[in-house]
């Protein structure tokens, strides 16, 4: 049913998709769709949650890499940005839905930010433990890392992600950050 | 005439302000306003240019401070953010005009970004010369510094600037950046 919702969202856009559209596509009563998704908002959230879960799995795989913490932090951030850029480019309707949820501070997007923060914090804590990163509070540092990279993951900047220099720009900021957290 | 335009913009908002409104307020023919500002866009740009020139003067004053480059960089960034935050809060109509110009990539806002970049580059170059900052290309580093602080100066983030933790967040990112550029 989440797949059907995805298809309808792509076809009609996030604003116009209704529970009835999904029921029609599945050939079921709209009551049975309502039992799963009691509102239009619940439909949109389910689709976006599925995508964000997928992004989280990709990032978890990076966290399991046996690389040095500075390399792992670079890889984590690059993977995070690339997933967003690809979605914005290849699936603009779903991305618009994600952007709308983020603007509304939906629990789905707040939970996602919480996961990203936990993932960055894990690498920062590893780096402090290994002596690669200077001592500090991993939570505070992880927040600063996400804030400093807003331009590359915050949907408010999606229009700039089509620019050919976005990759070079993000590499510049990532290097600045990694130098910022390293032991001196 | 720029002051009259400012007043009209504040009263009617950036979308609705016309050359005729300004002429009416000044009690002159609209032909004489047109001689100065041939279009609605020219009116808006003149008002925003005046504000941005004022911000630039404030930042130039920071650049003349005889403090160590790391402190000067912190002071430059803090002054830059505070000017934007104050304008967004205290003068929302003018700020909306600025935001619209930035979204349209107006020459006024591109020139402003160019000035900011030159100011950050100047402090970075001073810091490299004094040995406070690690060797590098000041232009490239200055771009990374502005990209890493987008959240605090890019009008796309204006809604977040009302948040009580914006000052702590910006201080966290500035510290990360200054540690990132320092000699190690």
TrEMBL record, chains A, B:
Residues 1-55 form the HTH tetR-type domain. GO terms for molecular function: DNA-binding transcription factor activity; transcription cis-regulatory region binding. Keywords: DNA-binding, Transcription, Transcription regulation. InterPro entries: DNA-bd_HTH_TetR-type_CS (IPR023772), Homeodomain-like_sf (IPR009057), HTH-type_TetR-like_transc_reg (IPR050109), HTH_TetR (IPR001647), Tet_transcr_reg_TetR-rel_C_sf (IPR036271), TetR_C_27 (IPR041478). SUPFAM superfamilies: Homeodomain-like, Tetracyclin repressor-like, C-terminal domain. Residues 18-37 bind DNA. It comes from the Bacteria. This is TetR/AcrR family transcriptional regulator. It comes from Actinomadura darangshiensis.
